Amino acid sequence: MNPSCRLEPAYIAGSRGKLFALHCAPVARNDRAECVIVAPSFAEEMNRCRYMQTMLAQQLAGHGIALLSVDPFGTGDSQGEFVEADWQQWIRDIITAADYAGQLGYRSVTLLGIRLGALLAAAAAPEVKNLRRLVFWQPVSNGKLALNQFLRIKIAAAIGRDEDGGTTAQFEEELNRGNSIQVAGYDVSPALFRGVQAAHFDQYLSSITTPISWFTVLASEERSTPRADLKTIEQWRSEGKQIEHLTSIGPAFWQAHERTLAPNLVNETISHLTGVPQHE
Amino acid sequence: MSLQSDIIQIINDVLMLDGQTTEFDSDTGLLGSIPEFDSIAVVSLVTALEEEFGCAFDDDELNADVFATIGSLTKVVEQKLD
Q1: Nearest-CA distance from B74 to chain A in Å?
Q2: What angle in degrees, to the nearest 10, is found between the helix axes of A190-198 and A143-158?
């Protein structure tokens, strides 16, 4: 572990159960210390992003900035089963994490939304005290599209096996009948499904008053930011929001099967937060 | 660049094959041939193709025939762009 960082794990009280909190505290901490709070991605993506979180935490500590990661209810090492989780609960858990950062003495908070976590961060933002800014890593701006992709994993998993993979429409029917469905080992309840399906940036934008930094990760110089994302960013600007769009070349770490890091994204995020250019 | 080479580039990026795809051609096998090509990778690839080419895959196109080889996948995308 990085000598500038001290790990302080704890169970904190959430509104439905104990939540596992991992506080990466900078050893050199001053009164104005800032805390970055992670709003994690969804299901398997949450696990696949952990290495990046750790890398970010270690480097932030060197700049006197903390990172706090709280597993939402029903995920990671927190209480509850995934099937018991729902979207509103997760939003409350992000707010709980921010309150905990306040108890730890941080007077300035950045919410880092990773993938679907960007929607969680945007939803929680109005309730987060001392919020300085929102930072998004490869944000998902439309819960419905993200769920559609998630359901497709169930279909894709059946390819090559002698079984009917079903269709996303069939899965939705099943959920509408009140049954949970299992996708890639995650039991998704109708309540969680509906919550994520309804989540969209448009819904949360009007309540956001802090600056937003939107990082798009591109696999190579030849790739470009998806058109839909550029459109969303333009739309927000035209509505007077302070939004900065940054691109970073690196692997799609949230999809990677093996441990995958995008060091450029970490360096560029830290440069952005501290105003100090980073070198690899 | 031809459609097939675009698709090979996207496969390289999505599966993080780090340039191993330079030898790929239309006969190169995908599903069952490339260890990284799991169900999440199939969905990531389909999403990337949809974004890049502005097309849409149907659920029933997520099958073993479409993802058998570079050639079979290219053919399906080609039909969508016609």
Answers
A1: 18
A2: 130
Contact between residue A253 and residue A52 where contact means Cβ atoms under 8 Å apart: yes
A260 touches chain B (CB under 8 A): yes
* pLDDT tens column, A226-279: 888 999 999 999 999 999 999 999 999 998 877 889 999 999 999 999 988 876
CB B14 to CB A184 under 8 A?
A: no
CATH of A5-142+206-274, one of 3.40.50.1820, 3.20.20.60, 3.40.640.10, 3.90.180.10: 3.40.50.1820
Cβ distance B43 to A152 less than 8 Å, yes or no, reads: yes
pLDDT in tens, A174-218: 999 999 999 989 999 999 999 999 999 999 989 999 999 999 999
Please give the ipTM for the structure prediction: 0.85
Is the CB of A230 inside 8 Å of chain B's CB atoms?
Answer: no
User: What Cα–Cα distance (Å) separates residue A61 from each residue in A25, A106, A258, A268?
Assistant: 7, 14, 26, 15
User: How far is A71 from A178, CA to CA, in rounded Å?
Assistant: 26
- Whether A167 sits inside 8 A of B60 (CB atoms) is yes
Q: Out of A155, A226, A251, whose CB is closest to B59?
A: A155
Q: pTM of the full predicted structure? A: 0.92
